[in-house]
Design goal:
single chain; 195 residues; NADH Oxidase; globular; binds flavin mononucleotide
């Protein structure tokens, strides 16, 4: 079956881990954030909050604090990354979006799921515009420090889950091979039918 543009974008998206220093345009950033808020959300709660950080000194400080905490991890590969002087948790991307979810005490819903749908929309929108991106979970090592989170200005009652890096891909970066595991799809066979 011929691929349409959306499916091609899905297939072409890769985590970009090397960026050019040039900032992305305001129009590109706006389009990526607009794509985020068109994600589905449970009960249409739209609990996401997006903090855009483009200040390199702040991003470097988050990187330092994240790595400091990673060095204390009981997990060996995390400690190794924390100790790797060359590793930057944002890969020096010029724009980072911290995605937080507004907590609702009465809600049975899970804001992290809605936020994740919004992140995937951002990654795909970025790809379609030629902007590189990477979903960053390791900043959890920074978010663990509530005081630092407050200093960033994340609204009260919001929990930061993930970050997303954005920037123009450095052409010298070769993304990892898009390996995908097989056998992840199963077809239900009704009782009495052949498998
Ligand atoms: C929840 C989540 C957390 C992730 N955290 C990180 C991260 O901290 N650093 C990083 O470089 N990539 C991170 N990634 C990107 C994955 O490593 C990447 O999606 C995976 O290796 C597949 O490669 P691809 O995105 O190029 O298809 C994360 C992805 C997800 C979904």
């Amino acid at each position: 079956m011929p691929l349409n543009q959306v499916i091609e974008t899905i297939r072409n998206r890769r985590s970009i881990r090397k960026y050019l220093p040039e900032q992305i345009s305001c129009n590109e950033l706006d389009a990526i954030l607009d794509a985020a808020i068109w994600a589905p959300s449970g009960h249409n709660d739209q609990p996401w909050r997006f903090l855009v950080i483009q200040d390199a000194a702040t991003l470097d400080a988050i990187n330092e604090e994240t790595k400091k905490n990673m060095k204390e991890s009981p997990v060996e590969w995390v400690r190794e990354m924390g100790n790797n002087e060359k590793f930057h948790v944002f890969y020096h991307a010029p724009t980072v979006i911290v995605v937080s979810g507004k907590q609702d005490a009465n809600s049975i819903l899970k804001p992290i799921v809605d936020c994740s749908a919004a992140i995937q929309n951002m990654l795909l929108a970025a790809t379609s515009l030629g902007v590189g991106s990477c979903w960053i979970g390791l900043t959890a090592f920074f978010f663990a420090n509530r005081e630092k989170v407050r200093e960033l200005g994340i609204p009260e009652g919001c929990v930061p889950y993930y970050s997303v890096t954005l920037g123009y891909p450095d052409p010298t970066f070769t993304p990892g091979a898009p390996r995908r595991k097989e056998n992840s799809v199963f077809r239900y066979a009704a009782p009495g039918t052949k498998r």
